[in-house]
Structure formats: structure tokens, C-alpha cells
Design a protein that fits this description.
- The structure is a homotetramer.
- Chain A has eight helices and 18 strands.
- In chain A, the strands form six sheets. Chain A has a five-stranded antiparallel β-sheet, covered by helices on one side. In chain A, strands 9-8-10-16-11 form a five-stranded antiparallel β-sheet. In chain A, strands 5-6 form a two-stranded antiparallel ribbon.
- The first copy, chain A, has helices at about 40-45, 110-115, 130-145, 175-180, 190-205, 235-240, 265, 340-355, and strands spanning about 5, 10-15, 20-30, 65-70, 70, 75, 80-85, 150-160, 165, 215-220, 250-255, 270-275, 275-280, 290, 290-295, 300-305, 315-320, 325.
- Chains in contact: A-B, A-C, A-D, B-C, B-D, C-D.
- Chains B and C meet through β2, β3, β4, β6 and β7 of B and β2, β3, β4, β6 and β7 of C.
Chain lengths: ~350, ~350, ~350, ~350
């Protein structure tokens, strides 16, 4: 409910407001005695940090999670793990001047209605993209637990604007390829896509605009036979968490929307057996049949809308006075949040997949 | 969990196997004292019945739900409503000959793994599309409760194969338009789309093949300010239930994947106020900002894969013997399940929306 | 929520009204491939049937459960098991004359308020003791699954009025003793208690009155190390389900309320080890420390209030007219429901314990 | 699940270990815009602080909760409220010498089994009574929200050892009486009970022993018609949370176990109407019929076992070496935890009751 949900036997909670004391997460019901490498957690989280062209390490960032509980002697205790990430940026002196102005594409107005004008509006409050940091923290933990179970997941930028990366090979993608793409500053498979995408982003920035994109996410090594039909299948759980990332507006598994244009004879993945393994020759199902994994790579793509914060003046309303007005959003904003959303989507998948091992 | 979930304060459960005694649903925690018109429930369910060119009424169908509990004197009692739909088609004499053969695109193999070879495999068991009937039953109940609260939802066929219908006008779609499209045998907006889509389906049938499509769903009258950020927003709840429909492989809200190709200045919906109402000039957000409704029409589209059951021989495996083999699926199968999936998607939306009124 | 809850990974739902079409249960998320002996389920349920001095078999009773789903070839399929128990007694011709009269000790008035006067009041509706039949059905299933895991549970009448049975030996009670007490018509350990308790019940009946009692329940073979601290321990789960039985007004584990009068040196159970087993010399903890089983017998007692339906005239109100009045409850009522509540309490424990094996 | 549960629409989570960095709580889904007086929260929490004969203020204690989120401008934001309580006492130099020794009555052994020897054992870890501080924090918040809705709850010491206080008058107890008993250092109704109970505690301390007791808890002003039958009634919810307090071994509502010795004619609470109000002349039901409030005071009692930490040598085992041994528990321990458990029980009730207002 709200920002605390049960996902299978796992319970995850995200709390905090952008300009409050701190944000954080509680993840409960993970197994006890699992080793956690904190440096690796910080490394995962640093992939979400603001991108600069120089090297950026987690250590020097403010988004350093302090683990409060559930971790002892380098291992999970089996109790709830709570982590806190302090907020640095709590000055909000100039906030009041814009209170009541609905920034287009933001939740200022809907949050005001939902919380009876009592929500913390500073910096987007609980709706801020900053709240993905706790999600990434939990995903970074699950990454290590999944690895211990033979599962590797990774996400890459599938497209920014109309510029596309190469897709994962849905049949033959390997753990090595997944691990490699995670190390990249701009996580793309096709080296040429790197430059083209940077150009698209630069152009958007210069035009005081922003641009969206698509993220593709894949897991290899997830055992066949996990998931459930109807309401608790892999698609249901994954999408429930992925839509927990602000700016996500769509998700598709395997061939997804393209399957809707296909014939059954094209879309059906023929099974074959080789050395005792059962596999499919294509993977339009994205590794999921009837909500249950079939042993092929799990693949989905998710649409990220362009950053709603743009520097151009925009027509809007003051929802307090109910008057039409114009807003100019101050401050520096990412012209494209897709790169920073990549580890968020991967984290969401990690959490969903880990929930099946409990 | 599995086929029983909590969606907000609502609890919904779908049970049964295709060739067992019966299938059915339990929906718990609806308000007490709500009038239910049973004929209208049957009418809603008949939209899911196999399409024939003659008139088809629910009454003459086998999928007639018997309400067991929670309904008294024409009203909900506030206790769990259970309905049973008897299965007619329980002869499965020829089942054993195909046991172990993984029909491509079906959950035969994954179900076998998931349930340790103990699941009921006849006719797809719990994975059968037949299990959408209980979902539609629950959605038909929620339709009436929503109407009493001023909310109207409807779905139409957005596309079959590459043939497209006109979309709902995301800004100005009216309740009347929604109600009208529900009455159509083939629910499309553009009269010309009807013939074109029928052709696509006919061609697929003649080619012993099948074809997929996209369904668009819309709700008008849902109040602004409902939903939640992070894990329990409108997108999360709706997608969790929509993916409960077999064959769904993707979902997108508002502009969805198209938003990923847009600039922020194009995608942002500018607010304006008119006669005290706050509205947006475009509706790329699909009526949802930060997981919360903004008062504009709620709009999403969902991808339906082509029917996996096709009459052509297909390469596959016997997952018991682990040998490669060929399957020829007997019996008559819908060359396109999109028309019958329309009320299923609408039902899923109804359930999700009703959960916010509790 | 209401009559559908998640208990660990298990989901259980009880539906129906006393004079409606049927009552029933859905239990979801049990493991697949578990053998179920239906005769034994009926036998368990017959322990809850009205007690007569002649032999009473389930088969001849109306409370015969029809399994609708989740059961195939003698085994669980892993999908939700739904069972329906038809109601015979649907004539309610004389109901209207007493509508609005709050029978003391019954939920007529509170149900009326809770459900906005829309609940089905006939025969107590959803509040009827009849609704324990679905609970017992689910407990009877779990009994067999627990047995396959080495766990045996049983309940006996600890007291009726002031007449006490011998208690289970909290340290040395054996599976054989538990199994034996289940076979008894009046489930007591001390043969002399049988006659004394029958006298107490007879006296109550002759006095147009009723009498309450205490049920003691025990499980042997439940592994050490199961349960959780804080909110999801054995006491929490067991009590949540046991209070699902109408007429239960208290529960205590191990020494329970007596522990409150003890010194720490008396109440603490000293551990000792013998042949590699760790045991305690006393069992005031009822086999539970920190919400987790310690390997000793699990023991609790629960208080059953006297049947509120008594033949004497009682002062009460008409909650429609808000006038004082007198009620005389017609029909035959058990002067003591404790014997019939015994399998209900045992069923509740079975469900709670089984939830830890998922 | 584990230490995170949903209780109706409310989600509560308790995290932390006794000697870790901090302990804390997350409570999610409270309404937005509710005023919270922090001083009053600290005051409530100080009732749980170690009792000294001098004045003890929260401010000077270590158990000072820092609210991290969900609170802005003196009001709830509607988002999850997280609070952290730092642990001071993290020195655990002498821990290793006693590792593996099962202190009788403690969860050392069961926690070791449950968490695969990975739990944090220092000071009891997550099983420590210290973990009731986050519970009390959440209960202190709910107290204020309940008061705004006309509900007042309080608990007092019903007995310590064999010394009894006067009970609440189950029919006529007033809000004033409830508020008064909360202000007392030793919360008893009968002034003479104060001295007698102190004597019992002193004697236990001198004997290097401890003593248990019973706590009675009552709420006035809770509206009639709230709750649900079967699994989600007032008894179910309240007991689920109350058993979240370590050392609780029993709970009874209204007449409770005494009802089991009563006749129906004695136990049934006759209704009467006066000035349009419907009330009962007795209150053996504890204000609950069919899981639903009837408007009378809600009353329950709960058994607290004697502190398991006593200074005497006790026989026990080393569960690592599986050898019999003797333990002598070092440090100072409360000879009676009942007084400190009073606000914990009250907090549990507050949380349960508040969950019905969402």
C-alpha cells in the first residue's frame, strides 16, 4: 500500500521526501546469512548518480546509504534491512514563491489533491526522482543474492529519442555481455550508439528541452518454472515494481507490442531440446509463458518519458488560486533521465526476481 | 499470491481449471448495500462469449455464473461474493495422447515445472483463457459500482495485426462514446475498421494461423486525486491486474512508448483552467501523474499476442521424454482472441478503479 | 481483509451466509502434488457435525464439501482449492417477524451497523457458526499435509463450565495420544471427565441455558526454528486464525495467564540436552520463544463463551425502532458448542502451522 | 511478514537490533494533514522508559526518536513516517564469551535456528524488548489521531504476581479515568495496589528473581459498527499486534476465560436503549460482537510472563557444542517488566484501532 508493498514473501518500503531529513528503504524477509559486499552496493548506486564526464564515485556523493539494521558481521541477519540516505539539499528558501504552480508533467497538482494539501511539496517531496535511490539500494542488495543463485540481470539504453542501440540477443545473450554493459558510463551495446545518443541529449539541452527513451532489461540464469499464473506471474510482479519508478509509462515483455502485429506462426517460440536442455529457437515470449519462466532469458523494455522539468516557459495553472499562469522552472535539470533510470529498472527487476527465491 | 491478491482494500481470487468441475471467483471487501443488476452482469459477460454472427445471449451459454454468496435482496451484503461457473466440457478422453507435448506459446511446459507435474493439464488447466470469465464477472460487478460513483470505462480494439481503429480522443472522449462502443459486436470506433479487421482475422484463419492486436481502454469520470506514488499508483494496480489476462504482453499509459520518442516540450501536458475546472490541453500522461489521477480521461493500451493455438504443425518437444517432436493442435480455436479480450481488459480496469473507492 | 486473509504465503477465504445458496472456502498457494484422502477430510469435518448419541457419518450430513478446483487425480494441483458446501436450510419464512431484534451475545446489531443494514440476517448470515465448516475443511486439508511433514495436532475439551479434563502433558505428550483423542466422540483425556461434562451440559439444557468451556490444542513434531519475531510469530498467526472462530474470547500459550503469577525462576523452562536433542524440562513457553518454535510441543488454550442462543426470554432492543423489548429465541440450539468447536480450533492451528512450510 | 505487516490499510514495520546502529519504525498509509504534537509523542514514549523513582524525562533518555519522513510543518504528509532511535549501548566486548548459551526463556536458541546462526545475538538482537520502542512510537502517533476522532485508550496494571488492581468498570469507565491512569508513574487504579505491587517487585528483586503480571487495556469512544467477522475482526487485529510485544503469552477480551465458566444467561449482555442510545447492561463481550464493535468500552487483558533474565544461576545448554551448562546472566535487569509493558499494550491497541479509520 502506498510506498510499502508485499511482493511475494518480500516486503519493501520506500520512505522520505526530497527535502526532508532523509530518504530510505526497508526490505524485510530476505534470507539470513547472505554475504553483502557494501562497496559493490555503493558501486551499483553510483550508476544512478548524476552523470559527469569525469569519474564519479559513490563515496564522494551525498547518496551514501547508511545501513541501520539487518546487517551484522558482513551478512544479512534475516531481519529487516533499513538504510537511510541523508538529504543534503534542504534549503528551500525560494520554495514559497512557486507554491501552487503545477509544473506540467509533474505531480504537484495530483499530490496536492491526494494529500489534502498536506504533502511536502519541496523539490517534489515523495514524488521526486530522488526516491529511486532507496529502490536502487534494495536492488543492489538483491543483485548479490541473485548472483549467489546463478542469476545475472542488466539493463541498457534501448533508445533515446529516435536513436536506437542494438537490442540484447533474446536467445543467446550471455552473463558476460550483461556484466559488461553494466560497467559502461553510458550503458549501450553498440559503441556507435553512444555518440549518437549523446548528440540527441545535447541537442535537447541546447533547445532548453528534454528527451525520453526506452530501457531494455534482461536476466539470464533465472531457473525455469518460477512464477505463477493469473495475478502473481513474472509480468505482474515486475511491472508492479517497475511502475514504482517515476517517469515510466509503459512496459512490454519479449516481443511485446510487436507481437500484436505478428501471426501466431511468427510469434510462437518453437521448443527444441539439445543435450537434455529444453530451449526455444526464438524468444518472443521474453522467457515467460503463463506468468512462469521457461528458462530462456527474461527480457522486457520500458518507456521513460522525457524529463518534465524543462527550462522553457510553459503554460499552466496555479491550483490554489485556480488561475492560468506561466511557469519557468529554475535550477539545473537532466535533459534526459534515461541513463540514470537504467540502474533503477535493473534494481526493480532484481527485487522482483529475488522475491521468487524466498 | 498466485491467483488470490489484495488490490488496495479489495481481495480478488480466481479459481478453477478448464476441465475441472467449475471455475469461479471470490471478491471480498466490496461495500454493502450496492444494487446489482444481474442481467447486466450476464450482458457484460456475454461480450466475452465466443463471437458468432447471430445474436448470442449469456443465458444460452455455459458461462453462466451462479452467485453463491454476498448477494441478498438484490444488493451486496458486504461479505465476500463468490460465483461459480460450471464447466461443461469435461470430456478429456483424448488428453493422454498429447500429455508431455509443449504446445508453443502455451504454458504446458512451464506449468509442468512450476507444479511438479501435478497440475491439471486438460485444456490448459488453470492457464486456460477460460479463467478470464471469473475476472470478467468481477469486472462486471465493479462496472455497476463505478457507474454509481460517476465513472464509466470502456475498451475497444485499437488494432488487429496492422489494421488500426481510430483511437479514443484522449482529451475529449465522452461517457456516451464509451457506452456506445461497448454495445458493438466488434468493438471499434471507426466503422471501416470493422470490415478491415474481419478480413485480417479471416485471412489468418484461412492460413491456419492466428493474429494479435492491441486493446485501448479508457475511463471517464474517475475523480482527480486518487492513487499513490511509488508502488501503489494507478499504473501499478492496473498493470498488475491486466497482466492477469493470459496473452497480454505489454501495457502503456497515455502516450506510452511514443512518449519515449518525444521531447519534454511535446510530451508535457499543459494545464489550463476553465470555469473553475483544471484540465490539460493534451493527455500524454493518460490521466495519471505521480501514480495519481489528474481528472483527465484515464487511457492505456495493452498488447495481445496472437492465439498460440494454430492448426499448423509446429516443431516442439515432449518435455517428459525430452525428445524433439511435432505437434498438431486439434479442435477449433479462435484465430484472434482480441475481440473476446476487450471485456477482459475493461474488467481489469474496473476492478483496479473500484479498489480506490474502498 | 474481512474473510480473506494472507497468512504467510497462504491465502484463505471463507464465504457464504447461513441461509444463502452455499458457503465455502478458497485456500490458495498450497504446494502441488500433495495427496489428499477425501474420506479423511469428510471424517475430520464430521467431528464438527451436530453430536448425536448414535453414530454420525459425514456422508449423511448436509455439510458435505464439493471440491470445485485445485484437486486432480487425487492430488493438489498447486492452484487454489475451492470447496462449496450447499445450504439446505434456506426457508426463512418466519424471519421477518424478528428482524431488528438484537439477540444478546449475537452480532445482529453490530452486523446491521457494519453493513449498513444490507447484510443477510437470516440465521446469523455470515456470522453464523456454520461458517466454521469451511474453516474446518481447510484445516482438514492441512492436517494431511502436516502429517506428511511429521506434524500431528489435536485438540481436546480442557473444561466445560467448572469441570476440567486432564491437560496434555506439555513435555511428554505423544503423537499417539493426540491421534487417540481425535477419535473420541467427546474428545477428553480423562474418562471420568466425559460423564461430568455431559452432566454439566445436560443441566444447562434443562435450565434452558447454555455453558462455555476451554479447548486445549497441541502439536507435536513441528520443527524447531519456525516462526518469526514481532508481528509474524506463531502466537500472532495462530491467534489471528483462532479468533476467526465465533465465540472465542481468549487465547493463551503455554502457561499463559498462569505465567503472569509466576516467578521467573518458575516460569523459565530450563534447557537440557540428551542424545544430541535440545529440550526443555518444563514447557511453560508452550513451545514458542520469540515467536519461534523451540521443538517442544506447541500448546495453547482458548476460551469459548457459552452459546448465546438460549431458550429463556431475554431483555433486549429492537435496533430499528430503538425500543426496549424481549426476545425468545426459537428453534433448537446446542446448549454447549465446545465439543463442536474442538475440530475448529484444531483446524485453525493446522492452517497456521501449514503456512510455515510454504 | 516477519516484522512488517499490513493491518487493514495500515502498514507497520519495526526494524533494528538491540546493539546495532539504531532501531526504528515505518508506518505507512496514515491520513495526510493530521497534526502531531511531538512533545506528546516523547511523553508517551517516556512511559516506557526505565522506571526510576526520580523524575524521568524522555529528553534525557537515549530512546529519542528522530522522525525522518512523512512529517512536515507539524502535520503528517500522508507518506510513510519513518523514525529512527539510535542505539547507545553498542559495546559488546564481552559478548563472545556467552555466545551459544541459551538463556532460559529467551530466544537465543530459536533465533539461532531460525536465522541459520546469522542473526545479531548481541543483547537479544531483534528479539530484545528494546524493539518495543518503535511500536510505542507508532502507538503514540495513533493516540493523537484517535483522539481527534473521539477515541481514548489506556492500559493499567491489572495484576503483578498475585496482587491485583481494581479493574476498569467495563460498562461505565470514562475517558477521564483512562486519561488519569496514564499519568501515573505506576499505572494502577487502586492507590493501595501501588504499594502492594512495589513490594512484590522488591521481593522478586531481592530474591534474584522476577515476576509477571496482567495488563488491562480499554478504549472508550470507538464507534459501534467497526470491525469485521471471521479473520479480520477486532480480536484478530488487536491480538496480532499485541503478540508483537515479547513476553506476552495470552490475551482475553471482555470476560475472556471467565466466560468459559459462565452460563449463557450470565454471559450474554442484555441490550437496552436510553435516550436513543443502544447499550448493554453488562459488558462481558468486551465491546465486541462478531468481531465488530458494539459501542461499549473495548476491554481486553493480556498476560505478561516474568522477565526471563534473572540473576540466579540456571541450568541450560550451549546450543553450539550441544553440552549442558549453567548460565549466570550479568547486568541489571528489570525484576518486573509489566509497568514498562503498559504503554506497549496501549500502543498496540492504538495501532489496531487506528487501522479501522483508514
Amino acid at each position: 500500500m502506498s510506498s510499502t508493498i508485499s511482493i511475494g514473501a518480500l516486503s519493501v518500503s520506500v520512505f522520505g521526501e526530497s527535502h526532508g531529513t532523509a530518504i530510505g528503504a526497508v526490505i524485510d524477509n530476505l534470507p539470513a546469512g547472505e554475504k553483502l559486499d557494501l562497496e559493490r552496493i555503493y558501486g551499483f548506486m553510483s550508476r544512478r548518480a548524476p552523470k559527469k564526464d569525469g569519474t564519479s564515485t559513490m563515496r564522494s556523493e551525498t547518496d551514501f546509504p547508511e545501513i541501520i539494521s539487518g546487517f551484522y558481521n558482513g551478512k544479512t541477519t534475516g531481519e529487516a534491512i533499513c538504510a537511510i540516505i541523508k538529504n543534503k539539499d534542504q534549503h528551500s528558501s525560494d520554495y514559497k514563491s512557486i507554491y501552487g504552480i503545477a509544473r506540467p508533467g509533474h505531480a504537484d497538482y495530483t499530490g496536492f489533491l491526494r494529500y489534502n494539501c498536506a504533502n511536502d511539496p519541496r523539490g517534489g517531496g515523495h514524488f521526486s526522482g530522488r526516491l529511486t535511490a532507496p529502490l536502487v539500494f534494495m536492488g543492489a542488495i538483491c543483485e548479490q543474492l541473485l548472483e549467489a543463485r546463478g542469476v545475472t540481470a542488466a539493463a541498457h539504453i534501448y533508445s533515446i529519442g529516435k536513436e536506437k542501440d542494438l537490442p540484447f540477443d533474446p536467445v543467446n545473450v550471455s552473463k558476460e555481455q550483461l556484466k559488461e554493459v553494466k560497467t559502461k558510463y553510458l550503458p549501450v551495446i553498440d559503441p556507435e550508439a553512444d555518440g549518437k545518443m549523446r548528440n540527441v541529449i545535447d541537442e535537447a539541452r541546447k533547445a532548453l528541452d528534454s528527451v525520453g527513451g526506452v530501457i531494455e532489461c534482461c536476466a539470464v540464469g533465472f531457473p525455469a518454472g518460477m512464477g505463477s499464473p493469473i495475478f502473481d506471474g513474472l509480468e505482474n510482479r515486475i511491472s508492479q515494481i517497475v511502475f514504482g519508478i517515476p517517469a515510466i509509462k509503459g512496459i512490454e515483455f519479449g516481443a511485446g507490442f510487436e507481437a500484436a502485429e505478428m501471426k501466431g506462426s511468427e510469434n510462437n517460440d518453437e521448443f527444441y531440446t539439445e543435450n537434455g536442455d529444453i530451449r526455444t529457437r526464438t524468444n518472443n515470449a521474453g522467457g515467460i509463458l503463463g506468468g512462469i519462466s521457461n528458462g530462456m532469458p527474461l527480457i522486457f523494455r520500458t518507456a521513460v518519458k522525457p524529463t518534465p522539468s524543462i527550462a522553457r516557459p510553459q503554460n499552466t495553472v496555479n491550483f490554489i488560486t485556480k488561475e492560468n499562469t506561466i511557469t519557468e522552472i529554475k535550477g539545473r535539470h537532466d535533459p534526459c533521465i534515461v541513463p540514470r533510470a537504467v540502474p533503477c529498472v535493473e534494481a526493480a527487476l532484481n527485487i522482483a526476481l529475488m522475491s521468487y527465491f524466498l
